[in-house]
Amino acid sequence: MNFDKELDARGLNCPLPILRTKKSLSELASGQVLKVSSTDPGSVKDMQAFARQTGNELLSSAEERGEFVFFLRKH
After folding, report:
1. Which residues are catalytic?
2. E strand intervals along the chain
3. pTM of the prediction?
4. In terms of Cα–Cα distance, which of 33, 44, 32 is closest to 69?
């Protein structure tokens, strides 16, 4: 998937992945896509809730070898 910015949140625990995601999204223009990599299993539910609460679109969520990758489109 194409993305405009990448955030490496691996090794960070809740709530840091979400806080860094929020900051990174604030630096993007509407419609741009952020890729987030995380190793915190809690980030799966956190990203879903974050997208719902902020109106940003969670385009995809995947796990591969204990790493979670999310793509969010800024509203």
Report:
1. 14
2. 5-9, 33-38, 57-64, 67-73
3. 0.96
4. 44
